[in-house]
Amino acid sequence: MQSIQANSYPIHFNEKGYEALNLHLTENKYSKLFIIVDSNTNEFCIPKFLPFLETDLTIEIIEFDAGEENKNIETCVQIWNVLTELGADRKSLVINLGGGVVTDLGGFVASTFKRGVDFIHIPTTLLSMVDASVGGKNGVDLGNLKNQIGVINVPIMVLIDTQYLETVPQNEMRSGLAEMLKHGLIYDKEYWEQFLDLKSIDFADFDALIYRSVEIKNEIVIQDPTEKNIRKSLNFGHTLGHAIESYFLENENKTTLLHGEAIAVGMILESYLSLHKKLISPEEYFQIKSSIKSIYDTIIFEENDIEPILELLIHDKKNEYGNIQFALIEGIGKIKINQSVENELILEAFQDYKS
């Protein structure tokens, strides 16, 4: 597959990516190479990755415990200390090998260590391939609040090798699929329609679907790298989805949701908001709701869950001057940003989701 040119960095695919990586290592005089992984990717992905690496550099592997609950500043401090102890300097290179938690956190660690060292993302989950590793957003959670601390800073390159998906469990694949569905809903109706009957998808061609998803996100980010305008469209499903994800993460009586599971709920809820603002038709809403519910389990919300979720909305990063802003779809394949919604309508959306 042809490489995709992002804002000042390339996105390479499969074998071509390793060729580009090794050429980059040859042409640049790095002092040391640090590979940041979590406990899952250290076990399952490092053995696949290291044989492709052609370098005489000293290689150090830095591991942290897997899980969204470890995507915090405390983990960053631990890694900054390890980098210091291992003699990392400004000519060091960091490779982030893992899912969205690794690329988000690793990119933030590299962007801030000694005011910034070069880093490369090698995403190993579907979610990180089609979303987290592309676009230059790096950061960590603040308590249970998603991605509150971070920077926009691009990697040297992104290397997407779909062979790593062989290591990914089915629920994680579904989590990544949610972002692909979102890309269709906000940008490309034909792409969305390819997912209406999952049984008909030839997964031998899944690389092409991943490629198109990356292409869509990159086309949006190139227009608006710092999220002042059209890039906000990528937050469709995320205003409520992130609040739901945060609530389930902090509540010990709830089973923690994967990112894509929460976003799937968020997309149904925010499609309902789009319907009642007359941006989509009832037929479009029914198609979205039924299609997403056919892929993801229905999440149970008790009456006393909704108010705390609504309170979390105030921390959403898109909010301006204390007002909650939504990115809503205006027909499948189009988006309308900076939409205000009353709480009563959000409550209605939750009631409709349950039905």
Automatic annotation (TrEMBL):
It holds the Pfam family DHQ_synthase. The keyword Nucleotide-binding applies. Residues 63-174 form the 3-dehydroquinate synthase N-terminal domain. Its cofactor is Zn(2+); NAD(+); Co(2+). The keyword Lyase applies. Its EC number is 4.2.3.4. InterPro entries: Dehydroquinate_synthase, DHQ_synth_AroB, DHQ_synth_fam, DHQS/DOIS_N, DHQS_C. One of its GO terms (molecular function) is metal ion binding. This is 3-dehydroquinate synthase. It comes from Flavobacterium rhamnosiphilum.
